[in-house]
Amino acid sequence: MLAGLRVSAFLAWKSIQRGSRGTLALTIMIIALIFVNLVFLPSIISGVVETFDAQSIDFDLGNLVIEPREGSQYIDDVTSLQKKVERIAGITGTSPRITAGVTYFYRGRNAASTLYGITPEDERSVTRIAEYMTAGEFLSNGDTDAIVMGTTLAGTEGEEAGGLPSLQGVGVGDSVEVAYPNGETRTYRVKGLFETQSFGVDTAAFVTTREMSRVLGLQDQASMILVKTAVNGREDEYKTEILSYGVQEDVLTFREKSGGFVEQAIQSFNIINTISTLVSLIIAIVVVFIVIFINTVNRRRQIGILKAIGIDQQIIINSYVIQVLFITAVGALVGIGLNAGVTTYLTAYPLVFPGGPVYPDVEASAILRSIGSLFGVSLVAGYIPAWRIAREDILTAIRG
Amino acid sequence: MAENLTRVYAMGNVEVRALAGVSLEVAKGEFVGIMGASGSGKSTLLHILGLLDRPTSGSVTIDGTDVLGLSDHRRTLFRLNRLGYVFQDYALIGELTALENVYLTSLVRGASKDEYIERSADILRRVGLGDRMDHRQSELSGGEQQRVAIARALVNSPSILLADEPCANLDSQTSKSILDLFARLNEELDQTIVMVSHEDWHKEYFCRIVTLRDGLIGDMVECRKA
Question: DSSP string of A10-66?
């Protein structure tokens, strides 16, 4: 058995070493590119999910969202609820928000979008918007006539924002008029502009809760309370914990709040990924099959001679299988190298998705799965043609 | 020992009788030449003796083993351990050097590296290729390739060396050197050789000449030695 494998390895190595270099290099390159294709799309999907999660947590929703119980428009006694939630171990911050759909007016232009009323200090304990100011400053607790605005909403002079709300050129220090849903209008001085690259956030603006409560006539009320936890990924546990503290309001994880959007996107991506994986593997099967088939057909006579001089057909088959394993192993290694190159490039110049910049997230499991499936299909595609020729009658093979 | 061998091929609806009942006994140390016209059945007989083909009927016994009763795997092992085969067109593995071609079968037998390299090199020196061991097929002349093939056939000390028109692709000078080599191996090593040939001048090398005619032994002549 061992002597047989030794001979198979010997024949395989000599064939690789002294066979056609061009065919070998081309086959390895094809396997490498198939490997990149197998790993690339899942890494982008993981990147999309990671980006969406990070953007949602850092800028939009925090880890959890407490919403008014059914039938209510606002959460009451916000301060006491905040205190209750913040007592839970692992909760690092809460930020009540009042939400209103408003219309902004600036130099004869208008845009309808969302305005949030926040307590700046609380907001800093949950989201990172204040760290992403491109001009001016973030709000302070005492501000009543100031507004901070996303760069998409502020816009650029003379440029449409591709269907997104844009005031086309608002700058720090400009005055913007806001028409509230209750008919009240206020004029605010733009204190700062932020850019998070999350479209939902960059098309909104913020004023202080103090200001918005006064306009809307609210008293210690909020449309939602964002909750930040010490670690990401354990939202369900914290949700149960919050509910166990007797919170009557609805508690949603950021995923639940986003209404299954990510799940739907992931499902669609996974369908595309499955099709892409299948096509890649079929290409791998066809390429390896053709290479080994041509190889064995060209060496049909040689295979007959090997059998005639007493080499067992399994040794001959195994020599082709070892060649395939070598080609696949080197192809996968080259593929890992290429993939590292693509990943490095896309980390430096990320793809921009509506949820923000997407960095490829190469998971070890995706690499292992791709290597496993490549080896699996290559083995089958290499074994079958070698087996077909090697089991031929000796004289038929020798006669070619 | 071959007894009453027949071999019938079906070519479409036509049956071709390549061997019609050949019985032949080859003694240890004999150099037997099988001759005959084209289509007389000499290659078919050699293929059956070399376990490359199965007869339609009859029996073949080599070293007391009924080789026709062996499974395919056992036949392969028998070819490896007991038989050496030299083909008309050398049949070397192009990707291997002369030395590698020779020691390949020893590798299969599980010999140690030192052992198979020493033995293969020794046989290559014996056939006059001591300085051509590391050359590949494409770097060797026809005569040199056939010597490598002979060395490969001899490396495992076979009971019988079977040669199928080994000089067919060689010029007369090279053919003579190959036949001289066979004669020397036969005499010095007492190597049993069964060789197919259609050249009359080869007869002088054989101990015994078996002439086939229409699938039957037409003539059997003792010549060089008894």
Answer: HHHHHHHHHS-HHHHHHHHHHHHHHHHHHHHHHHHHHHHHHHHHHHIIIIISBSEEE
Q: Which helix (H) or strand (E) holds B195?
A: strand B192-196
Using CA atoms, how far residue A65 sits from A85, A96, A250, B183, in Å, is 12, 10, 8, 98
* Range of the structural domain that residue A380 is part of: 2-55+262-399
CATH topology for B2-93+158-222 is Rossmann fold (3.40.50)
Kindly determine whether residue B80 and residue A394, on different chains, have CB atoms separated by under 8 Å: no
**Structural domains counted in chain A:** 2
Closest chain B residue by Cα to residue A314: B73
Instruction: Give the pLDDT confidence score for residue B224 in this predicted structure.
Output: 58
Q: Which of A214, A231, A257 is the last residue of a domain?
A: A257
Q: Give the residue from B73, B78, B95 with the most A CB atoms within 10 Å of its CB, the best one to mutate.
A: B95
Residue A81 above 80 pLDDT? yes
Whole-structure pTM over 0.80, yes or no? no
Strands A351-353 and A356-358: antiparallel
Residues of B in contact with A10 (CB under 8 A): 104, 107
Does residue A114 sit in the same domain as residue A231? yes
* For residues B138-142, average pLDDT: 91
Chain-centre distance for alpha carbon B115: 24
Partner A, chain B 25-44, Cβ-Cβ below 8 Å? none
Arithmetic mean of pLDDT, A244-267: 83
What residue segments make up the domains of chain B, in order of their start? 2-93+158-222
Query: Nearest CB to B85: which of A18, A309, A311?
Result: A309
- Cβ–Cβ gap B85/A308 under 8 Å: yes
